[in-house]
Write a structure and sequence with these properties.
Elements lengths: L6 H22 L1 H20 L3 H31 L5 H33 L2
Length: about 120
């Protein structure tokens, strides 16, 4: 339902909703906490591995993508669970597809980081 707010009031309300969503993801979703920890560790390593600003951006962008996709995965799972707990083929398919998006992000992170390390140490 729309709030009827506009301008700065809408921006402030939307920011509050976003912060609440991050908080809820942290509190309720262990996979999100694991992804945050992985991203934090790799963020720290990115300062050591990257030699230019562009390399650093290339290293951190997939980390943020992982967190975004994990939150969307959790949102899909929560929505499907809200609709009903009984097994339904489409519900299972939706959850599996969302999970596969997270897997692709993890693969992307591995490819980017291995490629960047290879480029720095073996090229």
């Amino acid at each position: 339902m729309k709030s009827g707010l506009s301008g700065y009031a809408r921006l402030i309300a939307a920011t509050g909703n976003s912060i609440r969503g991050i908080r809820d993801a942290w509190r309720q979703e262990s996979a999100f906490r694991q992804d945050v920890m992985l991203s934090a560790l790799l963020l720290l390593l990115s300062f050591w591995l990257a030699q230019t600003l562009v390399e650093w951006l290339i290293l951190i962008l997939p980390l943020f993508l992982l967190l975004i996709v994990e939150i969307l995965n959790s949102a899909i799972e929560n929505t499907v669970d809200r609709i009903g707990e009984e097994h339904h083929e489409l519900s299972g398919r939706a959850k599996d597809m969302a999970s596969s998006a997270v897997m692709f992000c993890l693969i992307l992170i591995a490819i980017v980081w291995i490629g960047m390390a290879w480029s720095r140490f073996y090229a």
